[in-house]
Recover the amino acids of this structure.
């Protein structure tokens, strides 16, 4: 090959060498002209020594460097690595500064959770309540049904083929073959199987949905309220027509018809809740809004249970009370569809929470305002359910027993000076609460539902035994005899509906632990709690070995430790104990057990007291163990 051809394919590596040389000169102050370059070899050679110096030059950069003008080619390929190095140094400082900032922010976050952590604790049972009830609208169970149906169908076909091919093979071997073949089919046809499961699930869902794909309501009662709700939306009142300026239902008791009952709070609430949601979501259906209404107020009920238990036993007590309430079977089954049962729980819990807030309140005006507000809500409750009086009676009984307890403790002082009734803060507050609550309830019940409704608050408990009398003076025959949820219950059935004997036992402990004492518990209190645990445990042990006890025997067994403790406190003239919440919860539990014996639907009324007592038990145990 001649020299001419060499020149045509030669590569000037000198300029590449100049590039590496220019990097080597970085960081040094250069004056005058640039260093003269040697003549570059035309052969294919690279000076690795210079490349090594290039990498060394990076480590020696400590001061600012400026480049003098070299040839144009050098200028085009030169880089100021000193600036790059400074950039990374500044980045390291920035990272250190950021780490300091993050440490400060973590401290603020910890302080935030210490201050507002109770909100997040309360949100856990509330979110659980919403999630569980949303399942009724999503129907995820159909996915399980569909998967089982499709898988069983495939396996059944495989088993038929194996039976024909290997008729004498043992069943265990056949099942193993089926499972092996199924796994092969599943790996090869997973997409098709998933699609078939999805279609089958939708087929199952269609049984519970109308032609528009909206879920049916699973009970008769919601449709009763739905009809009145539609009337309110269409012409402003629940009846079909107005007669004598009153809402009249022309379809019930046809062809005569009847005036609409006054307990239309549920339908009015549903109608206005729908209008509110429809403003933001025009596609919202009336039935769907009813589901959301119940879900919303169920979450509020869980929150109220949390607040009541928190007041007695701290955040831990509130948390467990809220969790139990969120998933309680009796409450859950009655809050999955738009029935008025939600108000049967919501109003009593609101009134009870207001009553609880007065316990530590010192301001007389606030106590009076809270008592009147509780009376107003009790009056409003008459529009939601005809059995509104149960919480009214529980509170009056609790207030009366508490007043009697305080009078007996301070009897000698009151005997010497009757003015002690007004000067003793505890006695004065309980008088104010009882007096104003009674009068405000009287006023608002008469205003909303009439005098007869208020009188019924005292006669209502007496009518429970005759709730399913076959003949009624106003309606023959009594259709309540055919209502399944009004079938008589049993003690075992009631206990099981609350989660079983163990959970019920813990809630009974909460009744005695709900007794509060200023200054903390003493040794005697500790031993009394232990004795109560043994006493309540003996009841379940006796039932386990076959000793049958009547429902009234159970009532005595529940109330006896509480009344004995009150008697001891009265005997010792010790005013440091507060029995109000323990009395309220125990009366609530005993009375609703009696109601549940007469009709199993009334186990719903037991759920709030049971949940609060359960949370109180665990919360107080945690407090006592933490103080050890």
């Amino acid at each position: 090959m001649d020299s001419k051809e060499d020149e045509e394919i030669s590569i000037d590596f000198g300029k590449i060498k100049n590039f590496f040389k220019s990097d080597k000169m970085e960081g040094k102050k250069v004056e005058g002209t640039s260093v003269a370059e040697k003549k570059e070899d035309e052969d294919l050679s690279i000076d690795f020594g210079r490349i090594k110096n290039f990498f060394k030059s990076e480590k020696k950069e400590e001061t600012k460097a400026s480049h003098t003008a070299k040839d144009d080619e050098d200028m085009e390929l030169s880089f100021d690595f000193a600036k790059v190095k400074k950039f990374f140094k500044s980045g390291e400082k920035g990272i250190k500064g950021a780490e300091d900032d993050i440490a400060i922010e973590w401290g603020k976050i910890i302080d935030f959770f210490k201050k507002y952590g109770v909100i997040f604790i309360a949100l856990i049972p509330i979110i659980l309540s919403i999630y569980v009830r949303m399942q009724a609208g999503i129907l995820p169970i159909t996915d399980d049904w569909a998967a089982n149906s499709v898988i069983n169908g495939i396996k059944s076909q495989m088993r038929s083929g194996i039976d024909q091919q290997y008729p004498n093979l043992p069943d265990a071997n056949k099942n193993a073959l089926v499972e092996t073949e199924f796994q092969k089919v599943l790996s090869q046809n997973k997409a098709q199987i998933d699609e078939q499961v999805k279609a089958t699930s939708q087929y199952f869902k269609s049984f519970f949905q109308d032609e528009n794909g909206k879920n049916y309501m699973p009970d008769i009662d919601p449709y009763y309220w739905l009809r009145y709700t539609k009337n309110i939306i269409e012409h402003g009142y629940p009846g079909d027509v107005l007669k004598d300026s009153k809402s009249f239902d022309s379809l019930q008791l046809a062809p005569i018809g009847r005036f609409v009952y006054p307990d239309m709070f549920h339908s009015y609430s549903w109608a206005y809740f729908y209008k509110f949601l429809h403003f933001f979501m025009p596609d919202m259906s009336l039935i769907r809004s009813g589901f959301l209404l119940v879900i919303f107020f169920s979450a509020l009920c869980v929150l109220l249970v949390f607040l009541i238990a928190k007041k007695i036993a701290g955040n831990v007590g509130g948390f467990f009370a809220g969790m139990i309430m969120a998933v309680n079977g009796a409450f859950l089954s009655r809050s999955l569809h738009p029935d008025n049962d939600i108000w049967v729980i919501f109003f009593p819990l609101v009134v009870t929470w207001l009553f609880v807030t007065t316990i530590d309140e010192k301001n007389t005006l606030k106590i009076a305002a809270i008592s009147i507000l509780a009376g107003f809500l009790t009056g409003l409750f008459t529009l939601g359910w005809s059995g509104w009086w149960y919480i009214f009676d529980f509170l009056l009984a609790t207030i009366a027993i508490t007043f009697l307890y305080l009078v007996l403790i301070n009897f000698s002082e009151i005997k010497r000076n009757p003015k002690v009734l007004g000067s003793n803060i505890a006695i004065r507050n309980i008088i104010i609460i009882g007096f104003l609550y009674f009068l405000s309830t009287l006023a608002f019940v008469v205003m909303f539902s009439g005098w007869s409704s208020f009188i019924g608050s005292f006669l209502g408990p007496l009518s429970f035994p005759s709730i399913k009398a076959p003949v009624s003076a106003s309606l023959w025959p009594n259709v309540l005899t055919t209502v399944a949820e009004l079938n008589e219950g049993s003690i075992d059935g009631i206990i099981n509906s609350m989660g079983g004997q163990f959970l019920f036992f813990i809630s009974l402990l909460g009744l005695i632990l709900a007794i509060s004492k200023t200054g903390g518990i003493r040794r005697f209190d500790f031993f009394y709690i232990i004795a109560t645990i043994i006493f309540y445990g003996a009841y379940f042990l006796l039932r386990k070995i076959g000793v049958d006890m009547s429902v009234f025997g159970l009532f005595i067994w529940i109330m006896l430790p509480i009344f004995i403790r009150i008697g001891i406190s009265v005997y010792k003239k010790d005013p440091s104990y507060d029995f109000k919440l323990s009395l309220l919860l125990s009366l609530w539990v005993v009375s609703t057990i009696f109601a549940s014996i007469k009709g199993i639907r009334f186990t719903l009324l037991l759920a709030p007291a049971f949940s609060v007592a359960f949370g109180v038990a665990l919360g107080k145990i945690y407090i006592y163990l933490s103080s050890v």
In short: Residues 81-138 form the longest helix (58 residues). The chain has a mean pLDDT of 81.
